[in-house]
Amino acid sequence: MLSLKSLTKTYRTGDKALVSVDIDIPNGQVVALIGPSGAGKSTLIRCINRLVEPTSGHVLLDDVDVTALNSSGLRRERRRMGMIFQEYALVERLSVMENVLSGRLGYVGFWRSFLRKYPQADIDEAFRLLDRVGLLDMADKRADELSGGQRQRVGICRALIQNPALLLVDEPTASLDPKTSRQIMRLICELCQERGLAAIINIHDVALAQMFVQRVIGLQSGAIRFDGPPDGLTPDVLTEIYGEEDWQATIRKDEDEDAEAAVA
Amino acid sequence: MTTALNARIGQPWRKPPFIKRVWLRWTLGVSAVLYLAAAIASIEVNWSRVYEGLDRGAAFIMSFTRPDFVSRAGDIWDGMLESLIMTVAASVVGILISIPIGLGAARNIAPLPVYLVCRSIVALSRALQEIIVAILLVAIFGFGPLAGFLTLSFATIGFLSKLLAEDIESMDRVQAEAIRATGAGWMQWINYGVQPQVMPRLIGLSMYRLDINFRESAILGLVGAGGIGATLNTAFDRYEFDTAAAILMIIIGIVMMLEYLSGIIRARVQ
Questions:
Q1: Does B183 touch chain A (CB under 8 A)?
Q2: Chain B residue whose CA is closest to A76
Q3: Is B143 exposed, middle or buried (0-12, 13-18, 19+ CB in 10 A)?
Q4: pLDDT grade for A264, boundaries at 50, 70 and 90
Q5: Cα(B226)–Cα(A199) distance, integer angstroms
Q6: What is the number of alpha carbons within 13 Å of residue A62 lying toward its C-beta?
Q7: How far apart are CA B237 and CA B54, in angstroms?
Q8: CATH number, domain with residue B198
Q9: Tell me, what's the pLDDT at B206?
Q10: Fewer CB within a 10 Å sphere, N or C end of chain A?
Q11: How many other CB atoms are found less than 10 A from the CB of residue B5?
């Protein structure tokens, strides 16, 4: 259970990125966070694991107040929050396996990680995850040799090997083609279900979000404008979140999906 | 078509001038020309002395056609060995010290007090030219390669720390952020998030510095800090231009070899 209590972030420049945001996300729920660029989506996600320090308010993960932790406590809690990034954020000059194992850094000591001598259980789990996303053969390739979709899969493995309770996903499909985007979204949602993980997914593609998630939160100027099931996203709601546009083409239609299913 | 567009159609377009203010542009241009003219006019050439020196210059240049590697072979060998030892030792020590200082001098990973201390060390090292440091250290530690070794180590720190810090500051922030998000400690973060990004440049710069250190070691001998420079200086003092030519040719050979080697290594580590 993740609870955000009147979470506020004001940048030093005076920009209000988040204005008193309250969200409760039960275990196992996948939430899409939509909103225009600059609405505070990335800031919201980064405030949860304190890559960005919130100005005020609280983040509670299973009753641990993340905002009150000192640096070692914070590192312990970060292990329980896997993060997946927009441009994959793999360390490009490390191998695929090193990137996946880096998800265990919070659990192993410095010398073990420095010498790449991870416990056998971690190594086995890394191979199991790579096999699950279909990249077992790539384990010793360098990360920058992979395609975009493959890199994002490695990013997913890195987040999952942390054995997290929560996934923070920052625009996972922004630099992927439409087909790969769907595969990645499907993979993330399936894995969340298999493992009973809660997830917050920042996403620009509203139709894609509607296709996969159970709940959508719309953010605009740092405040929540919509919170409900994906079917509740009417043209009026989208206009409130994004501004005036013709929304008919964006909103998912059943016949479209059938056509896509036939193609796939 | 809008009126704003109509006003532009048919008009020529030129790149806006680098200095926008007209008077400033002209003042700078004219003063540059005046300065150049004054500078050329102030050069005094004593042509009779130039004429007298021509013989010696010719003798020196001609000596390159018959360099003498043999008659001072022992001195050349000793000097060269001393220079090489000095270079390698100073490079290794300098690089080892500059890594922590480089980390501290990168604003995006070091806290402000550490940053300021490390930046001051870098600034001090860069402010003092090698020759000046060498003169100082020769005065303190006496003639010989120890002063040269310390000078080169000191200079390496300023050079490498600064460039390493700049590379760290321009690294991809998101890759490092991803490692931090896993709950990694500071050392792990550096090892996984930062080091892979800057390693090729660190190796390239280290090789380049090795190359510079060898060239510098040849100069440091002139102020008494040991190495091949001392041998070269002695050769000039004795008017043994053929030996001097031999030494210069060996230095050029070694520098070119190092250059070639560092090129190969830098291409490999990308």
A1: yes
A2: B183
A3: middle
A4: very low
A5: 66
A6: 11
A7: 18
A8: 1.10.3720.10
A9: 92
A10: C
A11: 8
CB–CB contact A105 B184 (8 Å): yes
The reported pLDDT for the residue numbered B1 is: 61
Name residues whose C-beta falls within 8 Å of residue A5's C-beta, 6 or more positions apart in sequence: A22, A57, A58, A59, A60
3-state helix, strand, coil in chain B (%, to 5): 80, 0, 20
**Token output for B15:** 């790149």
| Structural domains in chain A, sorted by start | 1-72+166-175+197-264 (3.40.50.300), 81-163 (3.40.50.300)
Q: What is the pTM of this model?
A: 0.80
Write out pLDDT tens, residues A203-250: 988 888 888 888 999 998 888 988 989 888 888 888 888 887 777 777
Secondary structure letter of residue B190 according to DSSP: I
Give the whole-angstrom CA distance, residue B121 versus residue B104: 10
Instruction: For residue B100, give both structure tokens.
Output: 């922590």
Q: Give, in degrees to the nearest 5, the angle at Cα A130 between A196 and A154.
A: 85
Q: Which residues of A touch B182 (CB under 8 A)?
A: 78-79, 83, 102-106, 158, 162
User: In B, which residues are within 8 Å of A106 by CB distance?
Assistant: 182-184
Backbone CA torsion sign across A209, A78, A25, A54: negative
